[in-house]
Amino acid sequence: MPILKDSREVKNILLPESGITIRIKDGLLAGDLEALESEQSEFKKMIAMITRLIIDWDAEGEDGVKLPINFNTVNLFGFTDLKFIQDNLSFLKSFLAVTPS
Q: What is the enclosing helix (H) or strand (E) of 69?
């Protein structure tokens, strides 16, 4: 009998602008799509999607305490880091290749 599980690849990515290393899942599940559906802004959808995909990171606050992975902290990434994340997720490359412009 087939086993239903989260089998997405997990990648370690060193972000070039911030120097943060993230562990991120490369793919979306139905639950991820449902959670993103309510966002009106495409930018907010992207930040919410990245927030859902990151499973760990080494980002710390000025006090040396590891920061939580949430919308507000991911929203602090610079454009270069966001673009780097997008460029390193294979599911986004294939999705964007078939999306009509």
A: none
